[in-house]
Structures are given as C-alpha cells and as structure tokens.
Amino acid sequence: MKINHVTIQTCALEETYSFYTDTFGLLGLNKQQDRFSLQIGSSILEFVQTMSNSRPFYHFAFNIPANRFRQAKEWLQKRVILHLEKGTDEVFFKNFDAYSYYFTDPSGNIVELISRQSASPVVEEPFGIAQILNIGEINVTTPRLMETGERLIDWGIRPRLDEELGEGLNFMGEGDSYLLLGRPGRIWFSSDKHAEVHPVTIMVDGSKRIEVTAEGEVLLMSVGTIG
User: Is position 102 within any domain?
Assistant: First the structure.
C-alpha cells in the first residue's frame, strides 16, 4: 500500500509552515491563506486551517532509508527535541524490524521518523531532506473501530500480516505504509497524549479515499486514479 496524499487540520498554520519549510527544509506547495502542502518524498502532506475551536493533532510517520537511522538522528537533533520513552529517545520495534524516534511539531502532531530495515531501501547518499521517502503512517481514529476495520478489509486494505482485528492499535496495510486504526482515548507511544478524533482525508494506492469526519465516521470512496 502507498499513501499518496494526507490532509489534516491545524490551529497553527503559519508556525507549522515555517517549521517544516525553514527548520526542516521541506518543499512547500500551494501555499494559501488557509492551507499549504508539503512534499514528503513521493507523498503529499496538506495542512488546512481548522474552522473549529479545537486543537487538532495527529500521529504520522515519515519513512527514511534502512541504512540512515544514525545519520538521520544526528540531523534531526539539530532541529527538534526528541521525545523520551523510558529514558531513551529511540526505539527498536522487533515485530516490525524498524527503528524510530519521535518529536512534536508546532501543531501538536506526534511525528515519527522510522527506518524499516526490511521494507525501506538502502541508499548511498548521506542523509538529508531528500532521503525522507514518503508518509509511512497516519492515524485513523474512530469509535467505530471494528466496523471500520471490516469495511477496510472488504475494500482490500487488510491488517498487517493478516492479523486479527483487535481493540488495540491495528496496522492496516502492507509494505512500508500503514493506516493506524484505533479508538479515541488510547495513549500514543512516546507521548502523554490520548488519541482524539479529528478530520483527516487520506488517498492511498492512487484511487482510494478514506475520510474521517469530526464525529468519527469513516467514509470510503473510490476516485479516479492519480499519479
């Protein structure tokens, strides 16, 4: 599965734009008064100014090459403060054969850089912004967890390794990209934040659109192929 385009909301549009373009050096696209987009390797991440009084936040991950975890960490530490979990600022997920670290952006998003040892490519170039490969994870938070999971399976987006759907966090997808399907209220790893329902729109595999409404309803739509 490939995540092509993600649209999320923010209450800190200008600060977030400056952070990702100036501090991170990502390419900003389509900057408007109420929105902007970022080029995340082969993916697009779009921020839209929230029209509510809420402070929306999400969890998303950027994939980086399998052999650039250490270099990327040195690069990242010059730009952000990494989260600590049990006294360490990095983690190895044995079940995923992946190394990660986390930070918070000006919108309050929990952002992860993840180096998937089996699923990500090996590169010769030293780490830089061009080695951020794509969006590897985005949360789909809904109280309708089991119903949404069954509908995603019927739509061809299955749990990782065909695992059974559960009440915890379900990784829906394959390869290097996943929808993180979970209920509101669970605590995000490396954070004290509880998952909340906020609007998000996700395009995957060029033709599948997943939309989470403010009420937590999940809409699945097939659209014209992009890319």
Answer: yes
Q: What is the average pLDDT value for the chain, to the nearest integer?
A: 95
Please give the backbone phi and psi of residue 93, each rounded to the nearest 5 degrees, phi first: -95, 105
pTM for the model stands at 0.96
**201 within some domain:** yes
CA angle 138, 139, 140 (to 5 degrees): 125
Examine residue 55 and state whether it is found in any structural domain, yes or no. yes
Read off the pLDDT of residues 189-203 as tens digits, 9 standing for 90 and up. 999 999 999 999 999
* Helix%, strand%, coil% for the chain, nearest 5: 15, 40, 45
Residue 187 structural domain? 3-222
- b/e code 83-100 from CB counts within 10 Å (16+ = b): beeeeebbbeeeebebbb
| pLDDT, tens digit (0-9, with 9 covering 90-100), for 11-48 | 999 999 999 999 999 999 999 999 999 999 999 999 99
Residue 227 lies in a domain: no
Count: domains in the chain: 1
How far, in Å, CA of 26 to CA of 150, rounded? 36
Does 227 score more than 70 pLDDT?
Answer: no
